[in-house]
Amino acid sequence: MMFRKRIFLFIMLLLMTVMLGGCDNTTQQPPVPLQNENPQQQAAPIEGGTVTPSSVGQDTMKMTVYYSTKDALNLVGEQYVVPKNTHPAQTAMELLVAGTKNPELISVVPAGTKLRNISVKEHIAYVDFSDQLVKNNKGGSASEILLVASIVNTLTEFHDIKKVQILVEGKKIDTISGHMDIGEPLSRSEKIIKK
Amino acid sequence: MLNLRRFRSIFLSLLLFMMFFVPQISMAETLDNNVPDASPAASVPILKSAISLPMAGARATNQLNSARWLVHKDAVEGTSKLRLVIDTSDPVIVSSTLDGNGPQLVLDIKGAVVGDVDDSITLDGQIAEKVRFIKKDGNNSQAVVDLPAMIDDGDYKVFTLKSDTANKKSFRVVVDINKPVPKVVYNFTPGLRNKVIVIDPGHGGSDPGAIGPNKVQEKTVTLAVAQKVKAMLENAGAKVLMTRQTDVDVYGPNASAVDELKARTIVANNNKADVFVSIHINAFSNPTVGGTATYYYQKSNYDALLANCIQDGLVATGGLQDRGTYSAGFYVIKRTTMPSILAELGFISNPAEEKLLSTYQFQQQMAQGIVQGLDKFFSQAAKRGGGL
Q1: What is the pLDDT of residues B7-21, one digit of tens each?
Q2: Measured between alpha carbons, how far is A108 from B77 in angstroms, rounded to an integer?
Q3: Does A141 touch chain B (CB under 8 A)?
Q4: Which residues on adjacent β-strands are paired with residue A165?
Q5: In sequence order, what are the residues at sequence separation of 6 or more whose Cβ sits closer than 8 angstroms to the Cβ of residue A13?
Q6: pTM of the model
Q7: Could you say which of A97, A146, B13, B27 has the lowest number of CB atoms within 10 Å?
Q8: ipTM confidence score
């Protein structure tokens, strides 16, 4: 009787430990596939880093989020170090939506846009935004290109994301402001990144 | 019995607990093995017929273990490229040639035998048909990629990647093949006379397009410039078709964005236009950004030429900052069959340019630039003699 009780207590404690691990991000080691495998690209200097805590330890992960240059011609990757969690792609999108604090860069996600959901299936990320993505868009090809490329390039930084399907209010859309054709999953665009 | 009940209640509360956490856990992306790595594909060293990596003593155990592929569709340019990745246990030396029997890309893989990889893998069918792995001898193998049509040297890249233990990647041979530009023969003649030119004033009706700080609307400026282009081209003897003549939705009120864009391409495609010119005004959140840019989608060997000619014309007559020409996957230039461009005359978000764009004189200058560009295009295209 006592023995069985102990076993139950033990199992319960074990389960609690595992789950709390998922909560406070200290005990869990989720896969954080952030290494870029293109050696040339890895060597490229990344400008505009803001968050650089002194130690990048086991409890943190690095991620790159793309914002526009002031002249609306290119994207620049800004590096972030954030506490480890089980949903790095969602974290990266939240950072993109929140925008940059770097005065040299410009956030391209329209004001008021919210990230509704993100899921990854067969290497395609389905990223769903609220309709402010379209309604609050200022128009213009330059804005649309930078917006689409910043979403796609930020997500394809993750090893297991090869393509990105942009959704608005849960639905596929063909275009954001009437120029780009975004009805299908898109892959990374290297050319727009400032080297 | 008591314990059993307690166990059940603990179990149920744990289950409830888990329901809160599982959705987050499912966010953790998983890897399957059927798709290539390395989305960042551009700017990789070109190693055609070249040595890749030092061979760590070509052991007989080095094998082609698996192969996978993916069609990469550039988010900005809309262009497609097929990436084939072959896993090898150890480094190899790869050389490649295009002169197989028929349209083929042949890779000679030195230092690895055909291992567990499938003998033949069907590819996308548009960029490449299939890849076959062939035993050469006890130490070397060959990969033959069958193509739907012959490609040029510049249309593909072959390179190798080192193993990456952190991400559980073995040594790899990577083949990138660009979707070839269709070889369409055009017989352009110089001059504007009798040319069928479609002018597309961007946005309209329920869609104002971008709006400037002083409330000037993109749709108004694009229509005003388009009407001036039409008048000038008709004076020169061209036949001009407008996707809209007034402030209306082209497809119809409350049309979906894609129906609206499709309606514009239909005007050009159904009338066998020589060229398609879409007129737009740019916008960006930083009000100091300004200038003219022209976009094309490379679906023939004339799209970039048309973009360059019109961009030069616009910069010459308008005098705004020259932002250059770019390849972009814009709907109307992608889905029209003839050489097409989308010109962004200036930035309505820039107060100075907004003011200029709303004046009759500047609109006239912009129209002049487009007409000059078209004239230059036809004379230069004619010099190419309809060649590719």
Answers
A1: 555 555 554 444 444
A2: 18
A3: yes
A4: A126
A5: none
A6: 0.77
A7: B13
A8: 0.78
